[in-house]
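Give me the fold.
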Amino acid sequence: MSTGSHTQVAAARPPLNRERIVAAALRIIDDEGVDAVSMRRIGADLDVQAMSLYNHVRGKADILDGVTEYITMELNFPLRFEGSWEDGVRTVAHNMRRSSLRHPRACELVLSRQLSSPTVLAPIDTVLSILLDRGFDEATAVHALRTFIAYQIGSLLREANASPTFSGTEEAAVGKRTARLAGCGFPAVERVAPVLAAVDFEAEFTFGVEMLISALQEYAPRQA
C-alpha cells in the first residue's frame, strides 16, 4: 500500500479518545462479558496498539468506571420526587432494572462499583433524598439504600445469567419443567411444581420490591 493510502486510512479512522474506548469496552461486555475486557482486547477492537489507550485512560479500572457512568446516565432521575416515598422507591427500582437490562452483562458494574463521580452519585443522592425528605433518619436511609442495592444486584444477576432451560414462561418449556419437578420425590417441591416451573422475572422483581417497601414501612416516621 502506498504512503498516500496509509494516510487515507488514518484520516478515515476517528481519533482515539476516552468515549471510543468506553464504547468498545461496552461492546465487548455485551458480547462476551466483563471478564473478556482487557487493554489488549479493546486495542484489537479499535485497531490500535494497547499501549496507545493509556494516552486517554488510566487503565482497565478507569474504563470500567466509564462504562458504569455511561449506563448510569441513561437513568435520568429527577433531582427530587413528588409524592410518597413508596412511589419514589418503586420508580427508582424499576428504572434501574430497565436501564441495567439494556446491557445485562454489565449490570453488575452498575450496581456494585464504588465510584465517586457526580454521574454515579446522582441516583444515590436521589434515593437518599426520597427517604430523608420524608422524615427517615440518616442511618435508616443508608441501610435502606444498601438493602435495595443488594436486592437489585442479586435479582438482576439472576435474570441476566438465567439459562433458558430453567427460566421463562414459554408454555412447552414450563410443561417440561413442571413434569420434572412433579416427580422429584420432594413433597413441597412437587406441590408447587407448576408455579416453580414458570419464571416471570419482572413479576418476581416487583414482588421483591413490594416486600422490601412493606418491611421499610416499619421504620417510616409516624405521621402526627
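The mean pLDDT is 87.
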